[in-house]
Amino acid sequence: MQAPMDPAPAEAPLPGGEAPPWLILWAAMLPVLAALEGWRAASVLAAVPGPAGVAAAASLLAVPAVLCIGLAQMTGRGWRAAIEARHGLVPRAAAPPCPALDQAIGFLEETVAGTRVMVGPSSDALAFAHRRPDGARVLAICGGGLRLWEQDRDAAEAVLLHEAAHLRAGEAAAFGGAGRLRRWLAGPWLLLAVVVLAAAGATAMPAGFPLMLLGHAAALLLVPVAVAWGAELGADRYASRAAGPAAVARVTAATRAGVKGRAGLAEVLTHPPHALRVLVSRDPKAPAVLIGFLLLVPAAWAAAVALRVAGAAGLSEMAGESAASRLVAADLLLSGAVPLAASGVALAAWPFLARHRRGLRETLLYAAAGLGCVALGAALVVRAAG
């Protein structure tokens, strides 16, 4: 039986993403953050020679190395080809006849014109945004999504709009969607537990080193988690404008249920809690909700730089106050001021870059969020100079 229809939404989906493509900004900043950790590891190695220093330096580099390797693999053709093989994706013309598929593609042609489609009829997945090995961006409709279409069309429409939002937001241009982070965000947490125990057991390490290691690893992982959450929340908001918030809520509840173990950890790291997704998509125009959504990723950048600076005490115990002060200044500028200023400029300009026509109030809210980020970035520059 088909679920009752949701009330008609207030407006159609907007072109572009709901927020700037944070995933691309984080990917651009990751090599810089890894270089800062390399500098910090070199300072530790110079201050603590021998096996203990090597172990400490390696533990500082472990998480950024895993993230950089994962980022490189996500953007490679082999990764994208493997995704197609795992889900059995074929062009629409090669898919077996299916009325639900014809209806789903017709819906996309009416609501999100120009979306290219591939089909994975044997896959249990619902749908996902995908970048093909040749660089083409497509929306993959899978067997699970076709079954959902027959059972709850409103929810299936919300799924397709959600994935189309990832294509429009620009994430799929490089990665195929924020969900590709899940494998690489779950791995570093497991690796982190090992390296922290190893470092804590090194008798030559000062007491502050394990705390510094935890803080810096958490800082490196905090931003990509916020980026993944922001991408999912933005896609939910986009889908809610056309399919209605109730359909979005049914999908998010169903996809979260029954996910356990490492897959459950990856789900938590790359997808926000169901209650938060419902709150953010329920009323996309509410000022408080919009401001909170826009500032999610910039707030993560600010929290991350605070964690990195807080680790200066542990570094000064090993490498001295001078080396620690230079690294704190570099952290404030490169891992704080630069991404915050870039985030602020992107937020203020986003209604125009994404061709949003939302009226003066929402445009001013974007501008206010952007100016706040730029002001905080400027404050960090002053702090670094002092």
Name some characteristics of this structure.
single chain; 386 residues; 4-stranded mixed beta sheet; 4% strand; mainly alpha
Portion in helices: over 70%
Content-based structural category: mainly alpha
* Strand element count: 4
Order of helix and strand elements from N to C terminus: HHHEHEEEHHHHHHHHHHHHH
Number of domains: 1
Describe the fold and architecture.
This protein is mainly alpha-helical. The chain has one domain. The protein is built from 17 helices and four strands. It has a four-stranded mixed sheet. A hairpin with a 5-residue loop joins strand 3 and strand 4 (137-142). Helix 1 packs antiparallel against helix 2 (51-74). The radius of gyration is 22 Å and the shape is globular.
